[in-house]
Amino acid sequence: MPRTADAPPGSPGTSAGAEAVLAGLDEEQRTAASEVTGPVCILAGAGTGKTRTITHRIAYGVHTGAFVPEQVLAVTFTARAAGELRTRLAALGVGGVQARTFHAAAMRQLRYFAPRVLGGPLPPLVENKLRVVASAATRNRLTTDRTSLRDLASEIEWAKTTLATPEDYPARAAAAGREPPFDAETVARVYASYESAKQRDGALDFEDLLLVTAFALEEHPDVARQVRGQYRHFVVDEYQDVNPLQQRLLDAWLGGRADVCVVGDPNQTIYSFTGADPDHLLGFADRYPDAAVVKLERDYRSTPQVVALANKLIGQAPPRRGLPGLRLLGQRPEGPAPRFFEHPDEPTEAAAVAQACRALVEAGMPASEIAVLFRINAQSQVYESALADAGVPYVLKGGERFFERPEVREAVVLLRGAAAGGSDPGALVPTVRDVLASTGWVEHRPPAGGAARDRWQSLAALVDLAVDLVAEDPTTDLPRFVAHLAERADAQHAPTVQGVTLASMHAAKGLEWDAVFVVGLVDGVLPIAQSLSRPEAVEEERRLLYVAVTRAREQLTLSWSLVRNPGAKRARPRSRFLDGLVPGSTPTAPPPQRKAKKTKVVLEGEAAEIFERLRAWRSSTAQAASVPAYVVFSDATLQAIAESKPTSVRELSGLPGVGARKLEMYAEDVLATVSG
């Protein structure tokens, strides 16, 4: 962006503005933010300021003229994260950048191009996947309950995100060590019926949004030219969680270009069960040998004591291939040492945690700054009861979304109606209190517990939000408050509800609290029993505990109980991950790591010769086009070509991985290479 003669200092396009963006960053953050030409890989450890770094990188690119804001697409995994990016960029004086989830970005593009790609408007989205799965299961004469239907839906989602078709699902599931709710062949039949039902209804699911958008870019050159002309710079947050379907869409957006910045933490790879593939992050430098790799290791979230425990925990994991490891460096003042407690049974453990939470609240710590984290949701019930008995308010994360709660919807409607009549600046908080009082809500008089207490806390959170907004801007009035609520609802950015957070370790990712209790740490729960037969799955469980530990800013307590119920005889061993962490214990020696076997293409005779000729042709073609080899054709596609020995464009077009665009570009060369 050229600098204008009358541009004020610090405005976009000025050198002063660019330097101002970098001010306040630490050395590593500054290095990462200054790398505005891709490919760039930012390895950002827990609490190291990754969101700050990538927003300042985008702003720096805009201020230096390297980026045009409207040509930047930043993709995230949650609407809340996308909203946070937009808010921070606005604070840096940068507007126009598209910050969206993968699905939101795909929907926006597909809605525009649907008439051209699909011959009509964007089809309706499947609103209730369980209903369609249930219908597919019934057609296959399966008896299911709600739990098995959810498991079937999750298995179909895994298959689609890993690009597995119904035909190859059984083999892919076996290779991945999946444990489906029914035998793999049955799941494959339900999957096929599910796809048929969607096609019959003319509908798409959320995975289809990504798949069809990628197809549109891969097979429609005019669409690809328009999208790639619009978006020239890409940022991908939480890259360790990208699945093959998302990577395919990213590749389609890039179109062989390399102006991409990915941000991730290999130590926080905890979603492989949903299809996430950390190899995309771990292999980034292999894929882009000229990539700039920057490590962020200064932890501004946790005390040195918490950081030391986290480093010790993850340091006992076997080394992983690819990118360099991360070792956090605590930047906060000293704090208390993490505490470890063994209890005779789960109710006793829960009661001890509840009393500790009560003591913290009575000492002045807000209940919202305390969390109890567990491996599986079924563990929450005993802690809900214990906290209720101790008179400590709590919030169960992962339950109903805040803005979808009946009392919140009612309150927003009433506030919107009041705003239509106008509002005096400076009277926001009293006005909000008056409106909520009309629903029966009484400030400073929370009910004793149960659903009534939850309802009171939800409405209290709206008042607290109004107080916070007025503190930031005393002129905020009711119409602006209502507009702010609408923005938060769109981004699923719930206000803070005053209560101890109960959450699974997965749900806690991306969050932080002053005090964290990590509970139920026994073998068979963490690591979960299903993972024990696969070393790589056990290591993912270790990373899950690492995520839980690094949620704590100041106080960290880890606990376990010997039996589930009082009076039970058989003792459970504490989690193996605590060996070497609990004072006086020694680390468990990791099992010997077998070298990973590289997947080989096994061909014989003429097919093997054709395959090698195709590889040589692909290499020279990719080099001439300055793109990675896989952009031309994957090994799997070359194998299919070598095995089938096509002699015509028609025969070639029927092979997997050979679309219309690639036929247009490569058919003549491929057929000539096959024929020798």
Descriptive notes:
This protein is of the alpha/beta class and 676 residues long. The chain folds into four domains: 36-120 and 217-296, P-loop containing nucleotide triphosphate hydrolases (Rossmann fold); 129-203, Arc Repressor Mutant, subunit A, CATH 1.10.10; 342-515 and 563-570, Rossmann fold (3-Layer(aba) Sandwich), CATH 3.40.50; 606-675, Orthogonal Bundle (DNA polymerase, domain 1). The protein contains 27 helices and 14 strands. The strands form three sheets. Strands 3-2-4-5-1-6 form a six-stranded parallel sheet, sandwiched between helices. α8 (169-175) packs across α9 (184-201), α15 (304-315) runs antiparallel to α22 (535-549) and α18 packs antiparallel against α21 (478-490). GO terms for molecular function: 3'-5' DNA helicase activity; ATP binding; ATP hydrolysis activity; DNA binding.
Strand content: 5-15%
What is the spatial order of strands in the main beta sheet? 3-2-4-5-1-6
The CATH class label of the largest domain is Alpha Beta
Which structural class should the secondary elements be placed in? alpha/beta
Q: What is the CATH architecture descriptor of the largest domain?
A: 3-Layer(aba) Sandwich
At CATH level 3, the topology of the largest domain is Rossmann fold
By DSSP (H or I, 4+ residues per run), the number of helices equals 27
Gap between N and C termini, in Å? Answer: 51 Å
Query: How many beta-strand segments?
Result: 14
Regions with little confidence, pLDDT below 50 for 5+ residues: 1-13, 591-601
Based on CA inertia axes, which overall geometry fits?
globular
The chain-level mean pLDDT equals 86
Percent helix, as a range, is: 40-55%
Q: Major sheet, described briefly?
A: 6 strands, parallel
Number of domains: 4
- Report the C-alpha radius of gyration, rounded: 27 Å
